[in-house]
Amino acid sequence: MSEQPISPLVFAPLADVVPAGVNAKLYSYQLAGWRWLKFLLAEGVGGVLADEMGLGKTLQIISVLSDAGEGSLRPALIIAPGSLLENWRREIDKFAPHLKALKHNGPLRTGRPADLQRYDVVITSYDNAVGDNSLLNMIRWQVIILDEAQFIKNPYAQRTRAVKRLRREAGLAVTGTPIENRLLDMWSIMDFVLPGQLGDAKSFEVRFSNDVDGASRLEPLVSPLMLRRRVADVAQDLPPRIDIPQVLELDEREAAAYDAERNRIKAEYGAAATLVALTSLRRFCAHPSLMDNTSGSVDPMSFSKFRRLDEIVEEIFVSAEKVIIFTSFTAMADMIARHIGTRFGVFTGVIDGRLAIDDRQPLIDRFSSVKGGAALVLNPKAGGAGLNITAANHVIHYNPEWNPAMEDQASARAYRRGQALPVTVHRLLVSDTVEDVVDERLRRKRALSDAAVIGVEGKEDDYGDIVAALSRSPSKRTGE
Fold first, then answer.
1. Does residue 178 have a pLDDT over 70?
2. Eight-class DSSP state of 412
3. Pseudo-torsion of CA 298, 283, 385, 416, nearest 10°?
4. Taking residues 210-237, what's their average pLDDT?
5. What is the set of domains in the chain, with CATH numbers?
6. Could you write out the three-class secondary structure of 236-252?
7. Comparing C-alpha atoms, which of 148, 152, 102 is closest to residue 123?
8. What distance in Å separates the CA atoms of residue 83 and residue 66, rounded to the nearest whole number?
9. Rounded to an integer, what distance in angstroms lies between the CA atom of residue 406 and that of residue 388?
């Protein structure tokens, strides 16, 4: 299938035309994407924004929500994986604060359509699209946006049917992987974007064989409604390093378990809580199984943050690229390496204090020599300096570090001289937990010291960070 079915030049806006109300400077390809989305919606049809990961699909969607040209897109509905709802809320608040956005989630969410219609944008999960289908169907949405639209790749799944029942003027699908396994994945997404365009599922499977020949015949039918740019295609527009924050939410069960641990620490240590004690909460945010040393026997995909890691890694490997993943916890490193090696069947190595220094570069050399996807999992202390891993153009910080210099040194393993591609740096962060406090501390320290080496010195701000960490609760947002 063609990787770039539509020339972005067709939709290139004039140099002085930018989306109104957006607090960001868009790259030229993002402006082209915004204009393309406006064009489709003006024609009363939907489309698939299938840009490769790291190209700012979220910002392009927010731009068209803020400025769709003629007519408002209110009310708009965004459906995303549950862990990404807070990320969408924060991004809208950051880039288009004039848009009134509601996160429709949690046990205290409204059951009245009038409450939803007071907002410009409603953000909800695929699970809520099933459970609240009747409520959401009482509103005719100007546009419904599916983030990670591969979630409806199975046309017979309950959530796919529920999403497609929702009334809408237009549908937009956002995914970096429109085809994961078979051409029917694309049919299901296109059936949401423009129902009936490719016939029904059974006739589609008869007409398009699941091979290169079938894909070649399908391509001209889907290309007009799909915009796909690769990092390599637009590299001249990009900075050498692209930072992608991923703010995640715990589900209700996970949030309750986190609060139980937070309250235990608070009761045991109180104002005397130390950063060592708070490591327990950081472990929880990596994976709850690290709390009771069961990480070797549990399904790692049982935790929402790990599932997001899996989705990011899958998209990297679809592009046959390499990734280095940083985590502070030995058990977490082993869990990640086991999962990636088993699930994707690619070369995976671990570099931490258990591996002799003399053995580290040979492992990196093996990693670098692999054709296609591969992963290295590193402890930021062991892999944070002196190593050159430019074979990887993706970095994932699985858990944030208290020390900004340590995190920056870790990212610099791939982002350095000799790197031929822009490097995407993903930072996974669980909202309203100790990780939020760590992230705020990182940003504060960077602003003050330009990422100078900063340690824990028992100063007043360290104490303040501890108090803040113990006060954060992931349960407090459930009734927005």
1. yes
2. T
3. 80
4. 86
5. 8-237 (3.40.50.10810), 241-471 (3.40.50.300)
6. HHCCCEEEEEEEECCCH
7. 102
8. 24
9. 16
Rounded-to-integer distance, Cα 397 and Cα 409, Å: 12
What are the structure tokens assigned to 373, written together? 């996807």
Name residues whose C-beta falls within 8 Å of residue 332's C-beta, 6 or more positions apart in sequence: 286, 287, 290, 295, 398, 399
- pLDDT: is 456 or 152 the higher one? 152
Name the nearest CA neighbour of 260 among 274, 281, 277, 283: 281
Taking phi over 0 as left and psi of -120 to 50 as alpha, with beta for the rest, 199 belongs to left
pLDDT higher than threshold 50 for residue 11: no
- CA–CA dist 269, 232 (Å, integer): 51
Query: What pTM did the predictor assign?
Result: 0.79
Peptide bond into 404 cis (omega under 30): no
Using CB atoms within 10 Å of the CB of residue 110, give its burial: 0 to 12 exposed, 13 to 18 middle, 19+ buried. Answer: middle
Cα 222 from Cα 34, distance rounded (Å):
19
What's 453's DSSP letter? Answer: -
Structure tokens at 402: 């208290």
Please say whether the beta carbons of 329 and 290 come within 8 A: yes
Element containing residue 426 per DSSP (H, E)? strand 423-430
CB 287 within 8 A of CB 308: no
Alpha-carbon distances, residue 229 vs 50, 69, 113, 246, 395 (angstroms): 7, 23, 37, 21, 20
At residue 327, the 3 state secondary structure works out as coil
